[in-house]
Write a structure and sequence with these properties.
InterPro entries: Peptidase_S8/S53_dom (IPR000209), Peptidase_S8/S53_dom_sf (IPR036852), Peptidase_S8_Ser-AS (IPR023828), Peptidase_S8_subtilisin-like (IPR050131), Peptidase_S8_subtilisin-rel (IPR015500). It comes from Dactylosporangium roseum. Keywords: Hydrolase, Membrane, Protease, Serine protease, Transmembrane, Transmembrane helix. The chain is built from 24 helices and 13 strands. By secondary structure, it is an alpha/beta fold. Strand 6, helix 18 and strand 7 form a beta-alpha-beta unit.
Length: about 775
């Protein structure tokens, strides 16, 4: 049945004996209410922003915020905002102040209860959403049972409320993307439950909006009061930093809600559900860390939140005007909601990121390949080929039953052989089944990045090519090696990183070429590219003209970090390419070319737990390279100066040659990670320059970067010089390691002592000239 605009409710009558009239009393009540509202918003924003910044800083430092601190934050926010609201409700003698205080207190308590769900780690997002939805629904049902009242929306206002809510979703359909199917459904259910929980208190606060005879005054004052309540509630909705985005985006819908309330009974659930679902369902909390950079998902989430805020304010104005100048019918409101929904679909398909990009699983099989005895194979190509064949054979045989079961269930998967395992496109329900199988050792989370509206621009250099060898090269004596022994010709160095600017003057001349020297698994072309800059910088330090340790060596590369968050599958894809290169698009299991494998690998990356890796996850892969005679160099990490910070694969394995960083006076950099490892191994193995290292960056110029990422390619370049000077040493991993360690020069420790001195400085600073001299064959008498 169509309805006209409902008449304005009659405002409360004159104050009774308990509510003395007069400007002073009312003025103080208004001032106190405003102060409590501002305090509530400020506390919610400041406390949760500080907690997120501290937690993210800890993650970047290789630590994690203890989960009880998130609960403590929820309790602290509840106390700091709830107590003033309680006092306002008890002490104020004006009806609107008491009303606001009571409902703000209630919403603060609701937000605190929902905030307790943050005890669930970010990596278990589906579980968090399920708990959030369950808690919100239970609390809402209990609240309804206690109050005994039900809220019913007017028919035409239901559709108009839905249209307003869908408008709040439009920016997220542009900047965000859906996770997995189950994750998306759970996010929708959570948004629905939270909206249901909020409906009764927000409806009560709306009495302030209808008290005013002027529409604009009612919408503004009522919107502010409703917005404070929404801020208190959304303090508990979403994992960091999604919760902060929700605090920016959701409360401004209060003004449209207040405007609608002046015409009757809108549907708070229909309005709020899309607004809350936007940040909750379309932003992955794992991807909001600053570790991904300032132009990744956090940036786009902030763009979406600010855009939603702007849309909310604009919609409130339009709603006021539309309701004042037009007579609305149910069919017109329904058509409006339909038009907005169609517009959202157009935005999502035309400029958004359609599809589902949920988390995946990595299944590690119990059986791993037996690679014993391969060090005795004299022929290098034969040794690598046998390694490849054993790995593939073991994986094909042992994975056969699991692959059949996955096909029978209609699940997509990608098999891997370097670590005998399978990446499965599935979530927590399938994980339980996989973990119950007798042929499965473990099931790891395997993060899958959600797409962005636009990639972040790569780093660009601002420095011209150096005219002479830089301090880092002269410090290790690389320039002296070139004059006496050569520059690394005949050796190929492989880099797994963010990619390579193959057109850079420092690197274009020694790219090996062919159809098996570059791999971009994410849909890239045949030309090496780098959308970040990290890979270009590290590889050029190893083999680049004018800036590299071994500028005469060739290189091949694979992109394993399109953004600064990887996974087991990301890393193994590139490592398999390094063991047996293959043309882009070919089958790595059967099209691999072991004879084209590089001799040395430089790896300036690590796989922490946030990327799904456990401590032993990548060890079979690193051991396979040792068995094949390929020298595997990796960065120690940048989580110093604390001890026991070499914790992420692949830096902590015995077969990895792990590199820390020093500055230009050979003092260990404060950020360089220290040992011992969790297994008690002494790490790092060696040190190299890693502070303000000049190297190539995309675009043709050069720039300075610091990190153990910068130190690692120095050692890879030294190994290339050694093996070029003495080809008989190629593949002899133990002899090469021994030479590097015994010829190292002293490095100066910094910070606290860790285990043994070697857990800070390793064997010392790499000495290229001494190492190559020791490796070079002795002239015949």
């Amino acid at each position: 049945m169509a309805e006209d605009s409902a008449p304005l409710p009659v405002p409360p009558g004159p104050p009774g004996p308990s509510e003395p009239s007069g400007p002073p009393s009312r003025g103080w009540a208004v001032a106190l209410t405003v102060l409590v509202g501002l305090w509530t918003v400020g506390v919610v924003v400041v406390v949760n922003a500080v907690l997120w910044l501290v937690g993210d800083t800890l993650v970047i430092s290789g630590l994690s915020m203890p989960l009880p601190f998130w609960l403590l934050g929820a309790v602290l926010t509840t106390l700091l905002t709830g107590v003033p609201a309680l006092l306002l409700s008890l002490l104020s003698r004006m009806w609107f102040a008491r009303l606001a205080g009571r409902q703000w207190l209630l919403l603060t308590l609701f937000g605190g209860l929902l905030g307790a769900a943050r005890l669930i780690p970010n990596t278990y997002h589906e579980l968090y959403l399920a708990v959030l939805a369950t808690v919100a629904a239970i609390v809402a049902a209990a609240h309804r049972a206690v109050t005994g009242r039900r809220e019913h929306a007017d028919g035409w206002l239901f559709w108009l409320s839905l249209a307003v809510g869908l408008l709040m979703l439009l920016p997220w359909l542009w900047v965000g993307s859906f996770g997995g199917r189950l994750e998306t459904v759970l996010a929708l259910l959570a948004a629905l439950a939270v909206s249901w929980l909020a409906a009764r208190p927000l409806s009560a606060i709306a009495a302030i909006a209808v008290h005013f005879r002027d529409d604009w005054a009612g919408a503004i004052v009522g919107g502010l009061a409703i917005g404070v309540g929404l801020t208190a509630l959304t303090a508990g909705v979403g994992l960091p930093a999604v919760q902060l985005l929700a605090v920016v985006a959701v409360p401004p819908v209060a003004f449209a809600l207040a405007a609608l309330h002046r015409k009757g009974r809108p549907s708070i659930v229909a309005l709020l559900t899309p607004a809350i679902f936007g940040p909750l369902g379309m932003i992955d909390p794992d991807e909001t860390s600053l570790i991904l950079g300032l132009r990744d998902e956090l940036f786009w989430g902030l763009v979406g939140a600010v855009a939603t805020l702007g849309v909310a304010l604009l919609v409130a104005v339009v709603t006021l005007v539309a309701l004042r100048r037009a007579r609305w019918h149910a069919w017109a409101a329904g058509v409006t909601a339909a038009v907005v929904a169609i517009g959202g679909a157009v935005i999502y398909t035309a400029v958004g990121q359609p599809g589902f990009a949920g988390e995946r699983l990595f299944v590690v099989m119990k059986e791993q390949a037996d690679l014993s005895g391969l060090s005795g194979v004299g022929d290098r190509t034969g040794r690598i080929r046998q390694t490849y064949q054993r790995l593939v054979g073991t994986a094909e045989r042992s994975q056969a039953p699991l692959r059949k079961a996955l096909r029978d269930k209609g699940l997509k998967f990608t098999p891997f052989y370097l670590v005998n395992g399978v990446e499965v496109d599935a979530g927590p329900v399938v994980r339980q089944w996989l973990e119950s199988r007798s042929d499965v050792a473990k099931v790891l989370l395997n993060p899958h990045l959600r797409p962005l509206p636009a990639p972040a621009p790569p780093m660009r250099g601002t420095v011209d090519a150096p005219a002479s060898p830089q301090w880092n090269l002269t410090l290790i004596g690389a320039d002296a090696v070139w004059q006496r022994f050569g520059t690394g010709k005949g050796i190929v160095v492989g880099s797994s990183d963010s990619g390579v600017d193959g057109a850079h003057p420092a690197l274009r001349g020694n790219f090996r070429g062919g159809d098996d020297s570059w791999l971009n698994p994410y849909g890239g072309g045949a030309t090496p590219t780098d959308n970040n800059g990290h890979g270009t910088h590290t590889l050029a330090t190893a083999v680049g003209a004018k800036v590299g340790v071994a500028p005469g060596a060739q290189w091949i590369a694979c992109e394993n970090l399109p953004r600064n968050l990887g996974s087991m599958a990301n890393y193994l894809t590139c490592l398999q390419f390094m063991l047996a290169p293959y043309p882009s698009g070919a089958d790595p299991w059967h099209a691999g070319r072991p004879e084209r494998a590089p001799q040395v690998l430089t790896n300036s990356w690590g796989c922490p737990s946030v990327e799904g890796c456990g401590l032993p996850s990548l060890r079979p892969a690193v051991d396979a390279f040792a068995a094949a005679g390929i020298f595997f160099v990796a960065a120690a990490g940048n989580t110093g100066p604390r001890c026991e910070t070499i914790t992420d694969p692949p830096s902590l394995y015995p077969s990895t040659f792990t590199i820390g960083a020093v500055d230009r006076v050979s003092e260990v950099a404060s950020f360089s990670s220290r040992g011992p490892t969790p297994d008690g191994l002494t790490k790092p193995d060696l040190m190299a320059p890693g502070v303000d290292v000049l190297s190539a960056l995309p675009g043709g110029r050069y720039g300075y970067l610091s990190g153990t990422s910068m130190a690692t390619p120095h050692v890879a370049g030294v190994v290339a010089l050694m093996w070029s000077a003495n080809p008989a040493l190629i593949g002899d991993i133990e002899a090469t390691r021994s030479i590097l360690e015994r010829t190292a020069r002293p490095a100066q420790p910094s910070g606290e002592s860790c285990g043994t001195p070697a857990d800070v400085v390793g064997a010392g600073l790499v000495d290229a000239f001494a190492a190559v001299t020791a490796a070079a064959p002795r002239p015949r008498p």
